[in-house]
Structures are given as C-alpha cells and as structure tokens.
Design a protein that fits this description.
16 strands; four-stranded parallel sheet; cytoplasm; seven-stranded parallel sheet; 2 domains; Ald_DH_N; Aldehyde Dehydrogenase, Chain A, domain 1; Aldehyde Dehydrogenase, Chain A, domain 2; Gamma-glutamyl phosphate reductase
C-alpha cells in the first residue's frame, strides 16, 4: 500500500503547488491591471456598473442554475437551513444585487477628491488627494451577493478586486464573476480587474493574505473564526470587519416600553447580521417588575435567554439557559441572547469593556449625564443613544453601500463605504524650488 500512499501524497503536493501558483499569477495580473483602473474616469465607471446590473438581471437564469447546483451540494453535505438561506438566490435577490450596483453608480467618486490643501510659505502648493488602495483581496463566506457588492465598491473606488468566496458558493460565484468579467471586457478594460480565486482548500486564503507586494489590502467578512484566521495570519495589511457581540443596556432612567421596542428590534429584526443585539444588560436599580418585563418580552418574541439562572429566577424569569463564559463572548447570530443584571451604567460599561468586540453598543436612558458617560467611556465603532443596534449600517448612515463594518482603529472604523476604500497621497507643486 505504500506506493499508493506516496502517489496520493505526490498528487496532493502537486495540486497544492498549482493552487498557490494560480493565486500568485492572478495577483500579478491584478497588480498589472491596477493602474488602468486607478485612472478610469467616473462616467466610464458608472456606465460599466449600470451595464453590469443589466447583465446580471438578463442572465439571471444562468445565475439561478448555478445557485441551484450549490444549494443541492450544500443540502447533500448537511448544510443548515440558515446557511442555505444565506446562499440562496432568487429573482428578487438578483434584482436587489443589481440595484446595489446601480446605487454605487449613483454615489460620488472618492478618487481624486482633495482632502485638504494649502500654499506653503515658500510658495509651493500642496494638496492631499484620495487615491485607490490598489489590489483589494476579499475573503468571505456563503453570501453570493458579496461577490457583486465587493466588485461594485472596488470598481467605483478604483481598486482591483480579488475575491475568495467559500467552496459552498463555488458555482454561483464562478457564474457571477464570469458575467462581470464579460461586462468589463465589453467596456475595453482588462478582465483581471475582477478575479475569483480557487476555494478548494483553506490554503488559498493563506496564499492571498501573504502575497505582500502584490496585494495591497485584504478584508475578511464572515464569522469570527474566519476574521480571526485572516487577521492573525496575514502579512498583507488587513482590515478587521464584522464580528458583533453588540450590547443593549437598559438604564434605571429608561422609558421601559421604548427600551423593549429597541431591544427587540436589535435582536429579532435579522438575527444573522453583525449589528444584531447579542447581550442585554439591565440596571439593577430598575424596578424588579420592569426587569422582568424586559426579559419576558424577549422570551415572548421567541428569544432564548442565557444568563445566571439563580439571579434571573429570583426575578421570576423561567426557562433560563445557564450561561457559560462563552455566552458573554458569543455572537449568537440566532434567536438567543445573553442577559445580565448590572450595577448601573458603570457596571454596564465594565461588562462591555470585558466582552465587547468593538462593533456597536447601545443604551436606553432619559438621563443626559448617563447618556454622556456611556458615549464617552464605551469603546466601540458605533455607540447608540436611545436607538437600536440595527442602525450600524452604511446605507442607514447615508453612505450608500458598504464593504463591511470595521471594528479596528487604524485606517477606517465603522461602516466602510467608498471613501474608506481609498488612501491618500500628497501632491506638491513648486516652480523650481530647492530646499536650503
């Protein structure tokens, strides 16, 4: 049996080498295409995006056929129905994806925008202008819409898109990129300005995120496990996005009815998104009847409550799931929520500081000083004062489409729209100036 094992090992080694070379070859061609896209005029970008939207709709039957192949494979592999839903496309969803491209076409082009400028005392004129990042790698899971969203945002901001989707969406992503590349070529541009990377093994992600000198930035979008794997192993600059252990604190000075409405909106509106509320914190000074009312409202909405069984049972709460350390850190993405009773706003801030992922934190209170303290002391990309966590969204902010929510502090924080997909450079214009 040894010769066969050696043959299998040799085949695997050869396959791995071929996969790595494919990623690097595509990265090289992307780098070569980047200058072409960086100088593309805005009207040409917008025309291409609108044409791509039309082609996605007109070739929708091809996309749906590819998607059906992925769905069948997913069900055959035992994929959960929640993941199947993320993966699934229909005519309505394709129309929405196309509308997203049209929306991006209607947004202001950030490339070339002057951030600041002045004339130096020696007469040299200086200005800081927005420029594309260059080659943008995107690593994401079973959401085919991200394939098109990433392409649209990358194109409008002058960036080449290298897309590494999940194996579960392989056929759908392949068809989507084929359509996009056909449109790109039709508009006289290199098809390499959008490329799909191999997804057979996890190692292709590593090839992408270590391609320094070829890839300028990598953005992971998906589960905490995926994001951490990229951020911890990348040698290419990475922008951390998405993981949202979002808290909602109900203060003793809150309007309880309003607080319940905001809490339910954040938890139950869409459980699978990164801005969903995952932990409710309730002020111990709130009357016990109101504490019970808040928790009962969650349970009546079908939400499973995780917490300290003894503490919550003392309030009259039934059917509490005993919380572990993981519960306080978890991004459930389901109809589950962790609930804790805390000692005022100080206790809420301390709990958030320990367990937050830095995405979105919210408070319900009618006390101005409490609201101000929460805003000043909570460290997160977004702080909501008397508003649901669901509002952390680029479109809600009036920024248009977004590539994700950055939870880091360098380069960009919060919704990453078109300006956040650019860098800047300084241009100094003199008249033969020399320095003493």
């Amino acid at each position: 049996m040894a010769p066969m094992a050696e043959t299998n090992d040799a085949d695997a080694t050869a396959q791995r080498a071929a996969e790595r070379e494919e990623v690097l070859t595509k990265a090289r061609t992307a780098k070569a295409a980047a200058p072409v896209l960086a100088t593309l005029p805005t009207p040409e970008k917008d025309a291409l995006l609108r044409d791509a939207a039309e082609q996605l709709v007109s070739r929708g039957a091809e996309v749906l056929a590819a998607n059906a192949e992925d769905i069948a494979a997913g069900r055959g592999a035992g994929m959960s129905e929640s993941l199947i839903d993320r993966l699934s496309l229909d005519v309505k969803r394709i129309d929405a994806i196309a509308d997203g491209l049209r929306q991006v076409a209607g947004l202001s082009d950030p490339v070339g925008v002057v951030v600041q400028g002045r004339t130096m005392s020696n007469g040299i004129r200086m200005r800081q202008v927005r420029v594309p990042l260059g080659v943008m790698g995107m690593v994401y899971e079973a959401r085919p819409n991200v394939t098109v969203d990433a392409f649209g945002l990358a194109l409008k901001s002058g960036n080449v898109a290298m897309l590494r989707g999940s194996k579960s969406a392989r056929a759908t992503n392949k068809k989507l990129v084929e359509i996009l590349q056909d449109v790109v070529v039709k508009h006289g541009l290199p098809r390499e300005i959008v490329q799909l990377l191999p997804c057979e093994t996890h190692e292709s992600v590593q090839d992408l995120i270590t391609a320094r000198g070829l890839v300028d930035v990598v953005i992971p979008r998906g589960s905490a496990r995926l994001i951490n794997a990229v951020v911890e192993n990348a040698t290419v600059p990475a922008i951390e996005t998405g993981t949202g252990n979002c808290h909602f604190y109900v203060d003793a000075a809150a309007d309880v009815d309003s607080a319940i409405a905001m809490l339910l909106n954040g938890k139950t509106r869409r459980v699978s998104v990164c801005n969903a509320t995952e932990t409710a914190l309730i002020d111990s000074r709130l009357p016990a009847a109101d504490q019970l009312r808040v928790i009962t409202a969650l349970q009546e909405a079908g939400v499973r409550v995780h917490g300290d069984v003894d503490k919550l049972s003392a309030l009259g709460v039934r059917d509490v799931v005993a919380a572990t350390e993981e519960d306080w850190a978890d991004e459930y993405l389901s109809m589950d929520i962790a609930v804790d009773i805390v000692d005022g706003v100080g206790g809420a801030i301390a709990h958030i500081a320990k367990w937050s992922t830095g995405h979105t934190e919210a408070i319900a209170s009618r006390d101005a000083l409490t609201l101000q303290r929460f805003a000043d002391e909570v460290d997160a990309a977004a702080v909501m004062l008397n508003a649901s966590t669901a509002f952390t969204d680029g479109e809600q902010y009036g920024m248009g489409a977004e590539i994700g929510i950055s939870t880091q502090k360098l380069h960009a924080r919060g919704p990453m729209a078109l300006p956040e997909l650019t860098s800047t450079k300084w241009i100094l214009e003199g008249a033969g100036h020399v320095r003493d």
